[in-house]
């Protein structure tokens, strides 16, 4: 069949509605080239309405498509430009299935994958350049970010992530099922946080703010939302507690010159892990460690006793009473390792004990920490991203993931 015969679509698997695929060529390496011709031509001049339209010039167009069963696919489109005999208007036909020198479906695949993967990985998968992927990503995400609304959630988590020798602000919707990053800022100063909070739409939604013990966060929230309670997540409190306890172990470790030092160093996780999470053997190993270093016993037991506050207290008042008893126990045991930790809790007591006043709300920053790990992964894998690219990836990556799930044969077989 002549390639000028547009009456039949010999290769319908190409599946571009504006074209007939009239020929197919292949190479030894599996590459495929389909020859396409447009199904229709313009009948009327869009400028003057004349029906006197003729072919002005044949113009081939090379277009890259998605791979087909692992084989690279190119399309050679035998296009035409047209001219109106009456007004001289040059008519170029636009095809919705095409986007420049790529098919629209290829561009959409690059758009989707570039949100969640590095530009280099996407460029390699679709046989194009990193620059092309970055351009497609930026064009796509500029549209998405224009649609993005920074709406105040019920519970807002404020945190930071350390990237490239600086701290970036992370603002999170705290929700067990729909948690995601709402905003990602270049700085975490008080003024930066204030500006971010004031940009939030529908601020009446906000009922609670969770954060770590960073004073500029608290001051910013109190200035913008003085009536919204601030809660210090127990994750950050326990983290400070663990740091104080581990400093004692580390100081002992530095004094020891025998091979026991290595064992004490490598078994630090036994003291840091929650007691109920230890295996039977790990429990035995911990007891052996505490018997060998009795100065660690009280430190460890007091750590576990403090943790009981979060599991047993049913109100902020009860939590305060338990903390007072815990301080007294530290004094009676002559344990000074927790002095700095005690001062920290006292300085942040309102926010720390407010945690117990909202048992029915998502008030833990554990989800924020999980999102921070994802942010660090994005930044590490895509080293060299500008802050603008990183911000778009962070905000869009955390909720625009591919939701199609795994391929299901059952869905087909049950039809």
From TrEMBL:
<feature type="domain" description="Transposase IS204/IS1001/IS1096/IS1165 helix-turn-helix">
    <location>
        <begin position="100"/>
        <end position="140"/>
    </location>
</feature>
<protein>
    <submittedName>
        <fullName>ISL3 family transposase</fullName>
    </submittedName>
</protein>
<feature type="domain" description="Transposase IS204/IS1001/IS1096/IS1165 DDE">
    <location>
        <begin position="156"/>
        <end position="393"/>
    </location>
</feature>
<dbReference type="Pfam" id="PF14690">
    <property type="entry name" value="Zn_ribbon_ISL3"/>
</dbReference>
<dbReference type="InterPro" id="IPR032877">
    <property type="entry name" value="Transposase_HTH"/>
</dbReference>
<dbReference type="InterPro" id="IPR002560">
    <property type="entry name" value="Transposase_DDE"/>
</dbReference>
<feature type="domain" description="Transposase IS204/IS1001/IS1096/IS1165 zinc-finger">
    <location>
        <begin position="41"/>
        <end position="87"/>
    </location>
</feature>
<dbReference type="Pfam" id="PF01610">
    <property type="entry name" value="DDE_Tnp_ISL3"/>
</dbReference>
<dbReference type="InterPro" id="IPR047951">
    <property type="entry name" value="Transpos_ISL3"/>
</dbReference>
<dbReference type="InterPro" id="IPR029261">
    <property type="entry name" value="Transposase_Znf"/>
</dbReference>
<dbReference type="Pfam" id="PF13542">
    <property type="entry name" value="HTH_Tnp_ISL3"/>
</dbReference>
